[in-house]
Amino acid sequence: MYILSQDKTRIYNMSGHIEGIGYEESKDYKQRKTENIRHTIQVFDGCAEEIAEFKTKEDCMLVIYAIFKGMEQDSKAVEIPTQEEMEKQKDLIKQLAEAGQEVAAGIEDLLKEMFNGE
C-alpha cells in the first residue's frame, strides 16, 4: 500500500521499509507567549517523519483508522486529506469507524458464543 502525504510531495510504501504510522502531539512555541498544540501523523522508518497535520487528535485518529481499513481491504493507495478536506469528510469517516466498531462487537459476540458453547 502507498500513502500520499498531505502536502502531496511524498509517497510512502507501507510494505517497504516503513515500520509504522502513528499519532504525535507536540507543543509549538512559535510565539513566546502562547503555545499551540500540534496534532500530526508520522511514519516511522528508524526516524519519525511528519506526513500530515490536523486541528485535533480526533482528526488524526480518524485518518489513521481509515488508513488501517484501507490496508485491511488491500487498497493499493491512500491519500491523506488536507485539513479543509477533512472537515468535509469527517462525518463520513466517523460513520466508517462506528460501523467497524459495530462489526467488531458482533464478531466478538459470535466468537464468545462459539467457544463457550452457548
Order of strands across the main sheet:
2-1-6
Q: Helices and strands: which structural class?
A: alpha+beta
Rounded radius of gyration (Å): 17 Å
Multimeric state? single chain
- Count the domains: 1
Number of distinct beta strands? 6
**Which regions contain 5 or more consecutive residues with pLDDT less than 50?**
none
Helix proportion: 40-55%
Average pLDDT taken over every residue? 83
Residues in β-strands, percent:
25-35%
Largest sheet: 3 strands, mixed
What separation lies between the terminal Cα atoms?
40 Å
Q: Which geometry do the CA atoms define?
A: globular
Structure annotation, total helices: 2
Write the element-wise H/E pattern from the N-terminal end onward. EEEEEHEH
Structure description:
- This protein has 118 residues and is an alpha+beta fold.
- The chain has one domain.
- The protein contains 2 helices and 6 strands; from the N terminus they run βββββαβα.
- The strands form 2 sheets. It has a 3-stranded mixed beta sheet, with no helix packed on it. A 3-stranded antiparallel beta sheet has the order 3-4-5, with helices on one face.
- A hairpin with a 7-residue loop joins β3 and β4.
- The longest helix has 34 residues.
- It is globular.
Provide the descriptors you would attach to this structure in a database record.
118 residues, alpha+beta, three-stranded mixed beta sheet, three-stranded antiparallel beta sheet, 2 helices, 42% helix, globular
Please describe the topology of this protein.
Layout: E1 2-4, E2 11-13, E3 20-28, E4 36-44, E5 48-54, H1 57-72, E6 77-79, H2 83-116
Parallel strand pairs: 1-6
Antiparallel strand pairs: 1-2, 3-4, 4-5
Helix pairs in contact: 1-2
